[in-house]
Design a protein that fits this description.
The longest helix has 29 residues. The protein is 29% helix and 23% strand. The radius of gyration is 43 Å and the shape is elongated. A hairpin with an 8-residue loop joins strand 5 and strand 6. A 6-stranded mixed sheet has the order 14-16-17-12-11-15, with no helix packed on it. A 5-stranded antiparallel sheet has the order 2-1-9-8-7, with helices on both faces. The chain has 3 domains: 106 residues, D-Ala-D-Ala carboxypeptidase, C-terminal domain (Peptidoglycan synthesis regulatory factor (PBP3), Domain 2, Sandwich), CATH 2.60.410.10; 253 residues, Beta-lactamase, CATH 3.40.710.10; 28 residues, no CATH class. It has 486 residues and is α+β, with helices and mostly antiparallel strands.
Length: 486
């Protein structure tokens, strides 16, 4: 916090003396150059204020870096997640197992796998790494792999499901509860679009998850139960052979489907330095002539809009002039530019400029009871912080500093100091003392000048007779003679 100027009687007295002498002192520096704001050009084909129409009954789009929600549709409605459940399964495995560990499939791992389940074709007795089992879980959406991994990590799948629910609570997913590790229908198995985005964002913090869930294919080595084979993803957005392939945009994803849950999809995507996580739940299972269902079309529409209408970057850059701070007692004006000391990074509609932002200062070091600073100020002095928001949404805060020095006006300072009755009394007393001192000195000098016996004429000398203690003045002979003749 910048310290405020504190008036002291000595300083004020010296300043008053300077005024009486007809002098004045000012401090000044050149005005600092203002920074120009720049922003990306808006994409005219998209508008952040006009989200796309989606067929899916629930959807959610968020920037996981800034937490900015771009779109939500029934985002807190509890719904069956189907195999998007496996994102949480993978997350718990990644946090509790070594991916290079070797796991042997047991016959009991198939006890809960129904005949109509999606599977990876695992057989009892074969051994695979945890990494390869995660590929079996995420690409072909193998329910068999989910039970193998659950048993390996927790000893049994029920204990593993308890770990899944603990993790959901840890992540703040209040609308989520799991009853199995794969997503088969169960009244106690549900989530929300918002919660699923949170779970996916946590999983995506693991590079291994992104590597596996973002792969179109995965090669498995030969085992005792299977020859070498290649797994293929069910996420058409990362499949180069798909008509809805989003080349280089979708980084990872997971599909899901049951008759009750409908078509579900959760993906992570990146473009132009911005990250997005999208969720659609409950889409129709009707496919077009290319075999593509509306969950993929909805997701592509949502991502195209998100990247087209929004941008991620610095809405405030270091050096930007944000506000003007009032300054008193200065020779350089009544205000100083408050310049940003850092940056505010946010996800905002394309084309957003400084003029669109709401800036609320929290000044520090102002005069007591005012919003004004008192000169002098040096360039770079801290002035406080500024809260930055857009349309009521807080984007962050940043420190601000004085863009230039503000010199102190001694006349203005003295007048301000004298406006306090106590200070005025002190000043009057000082002036009175000065005049009293001058009067006493003058009186003493006059008294010394009016006593002739303290002065000797030119040529006089003191004469002291031997043995005589007293002194008298001796005159030259000529003057003595004249004196006798008189």
């Amino acid at each position: 916090m910048r310290r405020t100027v504190t008036a002291r009687p000595l300083l004020a007295s010296l300043a008053l003396a300077a005024l009486l002498a007809g002098g004045a002192l000012t401090l000044a520096t050149p005005v600092a150059a203002l920074a120009d704001d720049g922003s990306a050009a808006a994409d005219a084909s998209y508008s952040a204020s006009v989200p796309p129409e989606l067929s899916s009954p629930a959807a959610f789009l968020v920037d996981p870096v800034t937490g900015t929600v771009l779109l939500e549709k029934n985002a807190d409605e509890q719904r069956e997640p189907a195999s998007t459940t496996k994102v949480m399964t993978a997350l718990v495995v990644l946090e509790n197992a070594d991916l290079d560990d070797q796991v042997t499939v047991e016959a009991s791992d198939f006890d809960e796998v129904t005949a109509d389940s999606s599977v990876a074709g695992l057989v009892a007795g074969e051994t695979l790494s945890v990494r390869d089992l995660l590929a079996c879980l995420l690409l072909p959406s193998g329910n068999d792999a989910s039970y193998v991994l659950a048993r390996y990590v927790a000893g049994d799948w029920q204990s593993f499901v308890a770990m899944m629910n603990e993790k959901a609570a840890e992540l703040g997913c209040t609308g989520t509860h799991f009853a199995n590790p794969c997503g088969l229908p169960d009244d106690a198995h549900y989530t929300t679009a918002r919660d699923l985005a949170t779970i996916f964002s946590a999983a995506a913090e693991h590079p291994e998850f992104v590597e596996i869930a973002g792969s179109a294919t995965w090669d498995l080595p030969a085992t005792s139960g299977n020859p070498a084979r290649t797994l293929r993803t069910t996420d058409l957005l990362v499949d180069p052979e798909s008509p809805v392939y989003m080349d280089g945009v979708v980084t990872a994803g997971k599909t899901g489907y049951t008759g009750d849950a409908g078509k579900c999809l959760v993906v992570g995507a990146e473009k132009d330095g911005m990250s997005l996580v999208g969720v659609v739940l409950g889409a129709s299972d009707a496919a077009d002539a290319s075999g593509v269902t509306e969950n993929f079309y909805d997701m592509r529409t949502m991502l195209d809009w998100g990247f087209g209408a929004w941008e991620y970057g610095e809405v405030v850059s270091a050096g930007d002039v944000l506000l003007a701070a009032d300054v008193t007692l200065s020779t350089d004006g009544e205000a100083v530019d408050a310049q940003s000391a850092g940056a505010v990074v946010a996800t905002v509609p394309r084309g957003t400029t400084l003029a669109d932002l709401t800036l609320v200062p929290a000044w520090e070091g102002t005069e007591e009871g005012t919003d004004s600073f008192q000169a002098p100020l040096e360039q770079g002095d801290a002035l406080g912080t500024v809260a930055v928001s857009l349309d009521g949404r807080e984007l962050g805060s940043v420190g601000v500093v004085a863009a230039r020095a503000m010199g102190l006006s001694i006349p203005a300072f003295v007048m301000w100091w004298l406006s306090d009755p106590v200070h005025a009394a002190i000043a009057v007393a000082c002036v009175v003392l000065v005049f009293v001192a001058i009067g006493v000195t003058s009186s003493l000098l006059r008294r010394r000048g009016g006593r002739p016996h303290y002065e000797m004429a030119v040529g006089q000398r003191r004469s002291v007779a031997p043995g005589v203690r007293s002194q008298r003045l001796s005159m030259p002979d000529e003057r003595r003679g004249r004196h006798r003749r008189r």
